[in-house]
Amino acid sequence: QVQLAESGGGSVQAGGSLKLSCEASGRKDRWYCVAWFRQAPGKEREGVAGIYIRNDAAFYADSVKGRFTISQDYAKNMVYLQMKDLKLEDTAMYYCAADDVCGAVPDLKPDFRYWGQGTQVAVSA
Fold first, then answer.
1. Separation between Cα atoms, residue 58 and residue 7, nearest integer Å
2. pLDDT, tens only, 79-103
3. Average pLDDT, stretch 1-16?
4. 38 forms bridges with which residues in the sheet?
5. How many Cβ atoms sit within 10 Å of the Cβ of residue 55?
6. Do the beta carbons of residue 22 and residue 114 sit within 8 Å?
7. Please, what is the average pLDDT of the chain?
8. Do 3 and 25 form a contact (C-beta atoms < 8 A)?
9. What is the mean predicted confidence (pLDDT) over 49-75?
């Protein structure tokens, strides 16, 4: 089992920055890949960014390319999402997800076994 805990969400004005953190605990051999998803009220959950832990290969949704950066620190059991130039449409609950099967990463599909509880990001004008 892998447990995930997100932190770092909050309220920010458009154009601002936030850095989300995802701390993993449990079996480290079960998280070969980690991704961030978000879900706004009334909308489907969408993939934002994903990373392969072993080689740092990263994937991004078109809507966040150039603004968001996913990174990982395996020794600290941490994955991060640096968000810059935030827009109103970035407002959502952000979730961290992990798995040891990584087929869903390149397309950022929500087919991950382990999920955190989420952290809220609110962007205002």
1. 21
2. 999 999 999 999 999 999 999 989 8
3. 96
4. 46, 94
5. 7
6. no
7. 95
8. yes
9. 95
The token pair at 74 is 């395996």
CB 60 within 8 A of CB 49: yes
pLDDT-derived band at 6 (thresholds 50, 70, 90) equals very high
* Burial bucket for residue 29 (CB in 10 Å: 0-12, 13-18, 19+): exposed
Three-state helix/strand/coil letters over the chain:
CEEEEEECCEEEECCCCEEEEEEEEECHHHCCEEEEEEECCCCCCEEEEEEECCCCCEEECCCCCCCEEEEEEHHHCEEEEEECCCCHHHCEEEEEEEECCCCCCCCCCCCCCEECCCEEEEEEC
SS3 content of the chain, % helix, strand, coil (to 5): 5, 50, 40
CB 84 within 8 A of CB 17: yes
**Encoded amino acid at 42, one letter:** G
pLDDT of residue 29: 74
